[in-house]
Amino acid sequence: MIREMTKEDFAAFWPCFESVIKAQETYAFDPEMNFEAAYQLWCATPLKAFVFVEGGQVLGSYYIRANGMGPSNHICNCGYMVTEAAQGKGIARQLCEHSQQIAIELGFEAMQFNSVVSTNTVAVKLWQKLGYQIIGTIPRAYRHKQLGYVDSYIMHKQLQV
């Protein structure tokens, strides 16, 4: 089930969030970010945040926000995280499909991912399967904890005209 995220949901999701940012493999978030800062970033600042719950457990989440302001506020941006135990079970796909529907309901015409780390091949392949195109490469944009400097992709999908 996917529903809007509460602060209690985020508390349950926090171990996943903290693990992802500390790994420094996919998100350009401060790896030392505390719970409150993370909650503000993921839940309070965006338009909405959602959670995937199954069997009473939070298995994944996403946020949605405008990618730009004013004349660029018709394009949205989302971020997704799935718990390690739930990876490979189609949850990221369900979250992305849900986010696209929410984006359309909110009046967005397109979705853009600003920095998909090139070595995150599972995510890149999934986004491509869901119709996102790589529209740009930012050389050496991400300092991967294990691999050093790697490229990041800008990915885009038109949702409605």
TrEMBL record:
Matching PANTHER family: ACETYLTRANSFERASE, GNAT FAMILY, N-ACETYLTRANSFERASE ACA1
The organism's place on the tree of life at top rank: Bacteria
InterPro entries reported in the protein's UniProt record: Acyl_CoA_acyltransferase, GNAT_dom, Mito_N-acetyltransferase
Species per Swiss-Prot/TrEMBL record: Photobacterium atrarenae
Residue ranges annotated for the N-acetyltransferase domain, each copy included: 1-160
Protein's recorded name: GNAT family N-acetyltransferase
SUPFAM superfamilies named in the record: Acyl-CoA N-acyltransferases (Nat)
Transmembrane segments: none
Alphabetical list of Pfam families matching this protein: Acetyltransf_1
